[in-house]
Amino acid sequence: xxxxxxxxxxxxxxxxxxxxxxxxxxxxxxxxxxxxxxxxxxxxxxxxxxxxxxxxxxxxxxxxxxxxxxxxxxxxxxxxxxxxxxxxxxxxxxxxxxxxxxxxxxxxxxxxxxxxxxxxxxxxxxxxxxxxxxxxxxxxxxxxxxxxxxxxxxxxxxxxxxxxxxxxxxxxxxxxxxxxxxxxxxxxxxxxxxxxxxxxxxxxxxxxxxxxxxxxxxxxxxxxxxxxxxxxxxxxxxxxxxxxxxxxxxxxxxxxxxxxxxxxxxxxxxxxxxxxxxxxxxxxxxxxxxxxxxxxxxxxxxxxxxxxxxxxxxxxxxxxxxxxxxxxxxxxxxxxxxxxxxxxxxxxxxxxxxxxxxxxxxxxxxxxxxxxxxxxxxxxxxxxxxxxxxxxxxxxxxxxxxxxxxxxxxxxxxxxxxxxxxxxxxxxxxxxxxxxxxxxxxxxxxxxxxxxxxxxxxxxxxxxxxxxxxxxxxxxxxxxxxxxxxxxxxxxxxxxxxxxxxxxxxxxxxxxxxxxxxxxxxxxxxxxxxxxxxxxxxxxxxxxxxxxxxxxxxxxxxxxxxxxxxxxxxxxxxxxxxxxxxxxxxxxxxxxxxxxxxxxxxxxxxxxxxxxxxxxxxxxxxxxxxxxxxxxxxxxxxxxxxxxxxxxxxxxxxxxxxxxxxxxxxxxxxxxxxxxxxxxxxxxxxxxxxxxxxxxxxxxxxxxxxxxxxxxxxxxxxxxxxxxxxxxxxxxxxxxxxxxxxxxxxxxxxxxxxxxxxxxxxxxxxxxxxxxxxxxxxxxxxxxxxxxxxxxxxxxxxxxxxxxxxxxxxxxxxxxxxxxxxxxxxxxxxxxxxxxxxxxxxxxxxxxxxxxxxxxxxxxxxxxxxxxxxxxxxxxxxxxxxxxxxxxxxxxxxxxxxxxxxxxxxxxxxxxxxxxxxxxxxxxxxxxxxxxxxxxxxxxxxxxxxxxxx
Length: 950
Known about the structure:
Layout lengths: L5 H10 L5 H5 L13 H9 L11 E4 L5 E6 L5 E8 L13 H8 L12 H7 L2 E7 L4 E8 L3 H13 L7 H19 L6 H9 L14 H6 L2 H11 L5 E7 L3 H12 L22 E4 L8 E8 L7 H12 L5 H9 L3 E10 L4 E9 L5 H18 L3 H18 L9 H12 L4 H9 L4 H11 L5 E4 L32 E5 L5 E6 L5 E9 L12 H8 L9 H11 L2 E6 L3 E9 L3 H13 L5 H18 L3 H14 L15 H6 L2 H11 L5 E7 L3 H12 L24 E6 L5 E10 L7 H13 L4 H9 L7 E4 L6 E10 L3 H15 L7 H13 L1 H4 L3 H13 L10 H6 L3 H11 L6 E6 L1 H10 L5 E4 L5 E3 L10
Parallel strand pairs: 2-6, 7-11, 13-17, 18-22, 18-23
Antiparallel strand pairs: 1-2, 3-5, 3-6, 4-5, 8-10, 8-11, 9-10, 12-13, 14-16, 14-17, 15-16, 19-21, 19-22, 20-21, 23-24
Helix pairs in contact: 3-20, 4-7, 5-30, 6-11, 12-18, 13-14, 14-18, 15-20, 19-25, 20-21, 27-30, 27-34, 28-29, 29-35
Organism: Microbulbifer celer
C-alpha cells in the first residue's frame, strides 16, 4: 500500500488514551455473546425497529474490451469516488517471486508514459481525498475521491497507468520501490507480533497453496524481481477485461459511459485468464507451533481453515465468529476477560477470501497466566457452542451490529469502506455489486441450528495453535483521449460548511448543532475541558482510566448490559480522553434515538466506578502500559513530553495518557469519583451534535435527560499551561531496543499553540517541510534514499504550546545518516532552501480544492466542530476558510518557519539497537547523548562514544 497518510493514523492510536485493551482488540473481525443477560436487554429488544434490507442503486455496463463499469448516482455532494479494482493479488504469484503483486502496486504510483512524475501531485492540487492503493491475496485496488470537476483528470490518470505504464518503468524506479517495500516489511516486522501473519499462512496452508505466502513477500524474492517480471505481470493481469471500474457520487450512467469509453476504451483486454478453484485445505489433525517476539504479553492464536467466499456455509461461519468473539458480550470475552480474568483481550478474526477463509481466535494472556490455561478455556467455550449452538438473542444482536456498521458505510461514496467499495467487492468476487448487502439480509434469516451445524462441520477439528508465541473475443476501440496533457480541472464548486445552531441550557451546558439529514444517524459528543493535562497534581493516567471506566457499569446497568443495549440499538457509545479534553460520544440510529440517548445519559451521569470493575481492569491496563514500553513509537511518546516541558507543567506527562504502573496500581475509587465530579460538569462542557435532528427536537430530549444535571459549587479547575522556554541547545536521548530491525527517530521542539490566529499558515509551513507524502523530509528519506517507508513532521495539537515532532522510522544501519539528513532539512528550510512559492501554491490549491469532499459524512462535520470547540475558534470559521488560505503569503510562511524551527534546540529521542547506532549518532555532535530506560530514567550520564555503529 502506498501509505501516504500512515503517520497521522499511527499517532491517533499512539497519542490516544491507553483505554481498555479489550476495546481496541476487536477489530477486522466477526465475533460476540452468550445467554440473554437481563430483563433490561429484553426491553431493548422489544423496542428495537426491525431493519429494512439495505441495497445500493447502481447501473452496470461492459465496454467492448471487457472493462466492467459500475455506476452509482449520489448527488448529496459534488464529488465522485473512483475505484479501479484488478482481479489479481498475491495468490497469482509464483514461488520465488512472492511479494510481486504489492511491489507492482507501488510502481503504479511512479508515473506513466504521458505523466512521468509523482502520481499524487495533480490529485493534491485537485483536492482529492481518500486516495491510496492496496494489495491483498485476491485483488489490487486503487481509489480516490475527487471534486466532480476533476473527474476527467482522475480517469485520465487511472487509464494512463492502466494502458500506458511500461514505457517509464526503469531499473532505477524498480530499485527505488523495491527499497520502499522492503522498508515497509521491516516496519511491519518491527512491531510486536509483526511476524505472525507470515508464519501462520505458511503453517495452515500446504506447500504450493496460493495463500501459503504473505502478500508483502520475502526479502529474497523482492530482490529477485526483474524488469522482465514487471512487463510480464502488467501484460498478463492489468488488462481491461480483468478490471472493475466503480464510479460513485455526482455522476450519471450516460456521463459514465462517455467518459469510460473515452479514457479506457482503447486499452487492450489482456489475455484470457482462468480462475483458481476454491482450495479450503481443511485440516483433520491439530498442529501447533511456538515463536518468540519482543512483546510484553503472551498471545495464543487458534486458527481453522474455513469456507471461502460464496460457499454454502460461509455466512453461518461468519455469524458464529461474531457470537464467539466480537465485543464484550461475546462468549470468549465474557469467559476469559470478564469472568475468569485470565486474558486482557480476546477476539475472533474471520478473514474471508476466494479460495479459503481463515478463522482466528486471538487471546492475550494476563501477565502470570499460562497459555495452556487460556487454551483450555477457549476449548471449553468452543465445545459448548458446538453442542448447543447460538441463542436467538445472540443472532439478533450480532446481526444488528453488522447491519448498523453497513448502514453507516452507506453514507460515504468512497474511501476505505463506502458504497464504491461495497459495489466493487460484490462485482469482483460475485458478479453482483450488491452481493455483500444481500448476504447481510441472508444472515438475518439464519437459524441457530443452521449456525450450529456449519460450526460443527468446520470448527470441530483441524486447528493450528501458535503460541507467541475465460473470455469472449474482445476488440480495442480507437484512442479518443488526448494524452499529450492532463485534462483541465475546470471551476471548483463552492461547498459551504453546514449552518451551525447554538443554544445553552440553564445549567451552563453549551449546545452546538449541525443538521445533516442524508442518513438516519445522529452523532453526539459531550466534550469537557479536561484530558491528560488534568492529571497534573493527581495520579498520572487518572483521566484516561476514569473515562474508560464509565462504560464498565452504571448505578443501573452492568458493563455487559451496557454493551448488550448498544448492540440491540445499533448504537455506539465511546468514552475518551485526549491531551486537553475528555468526551463521551454517541452515534445512534434515528429510529432508536430516544433509547440510545437514555443509555448515553446513564453512562455519562451515573458511572458506578465499582471496586470490582476497577480491579478487573487494573491488571489489563498495567499490561497495556508494559506493551507501550515494547512499541517503538509509544516508547518515544511516553518519554519526550517531560523532556520538552520540564517539571510542573500540565503537559509534562506521557502523551499516551496511560500513566505509569505505579500510578495505576495506586488508583482508588475515590480518585475516579473525584475526577468525574471535578471535571465532568455542565458548565465545563459543550455538546456537539450533527445529523438527522432539528434543534427543537434536540432541546426537548436534552431537557428530559439533563435538566437536573447541576454544576458543583466549587469553581471550575484550571490547568497549568504556562509558557516554557526552549532549551539552550539540542540533546539526544537513546532508548535501547536490542535486535530492532529499525530505529525510530523522533525530534521534538515546542511550537505555538493550536489556538493562534496564524494556525493555517503554521500548518502549511510544516506541510512543505514534512506534513505530506510529497513533502521534503519524506521525499528525501523514502523516495531518494530508500532508508524509510515514510518520514514526516507534524504538530500534535494542543491548547498550550504544542510539540513540533519530526518522525522517521529508518533502517538500523542508516540511523546516524538519517539523523544528519533531518538536520540538513531543518537548517536548509530556515536558511538556504526556504519554502518556495510553488510549494505553497500546491498546498493552497489542495486545501481549497478538497473542500467539496471534506465534509461528506456526519462524522466529518462533527469532527470539525469538535476541533473548533477545543481550540476556541469561531463556529463560522469554515465559512471564511477558503479566503484565509488564499491570503497566506510566502513571506508569512518564511517568518513562521524562522520563528518556530530551531534546529539547534531540538530534543531527539531515538529507539533502536544501541550497540549498532550509538557511536554513529554521537559522532554527529548534535548534543549530549544520554541513555534512558523505558520509563525515561537516565541509565548513564552519557553513552560511551566507543560504541560501534554497526
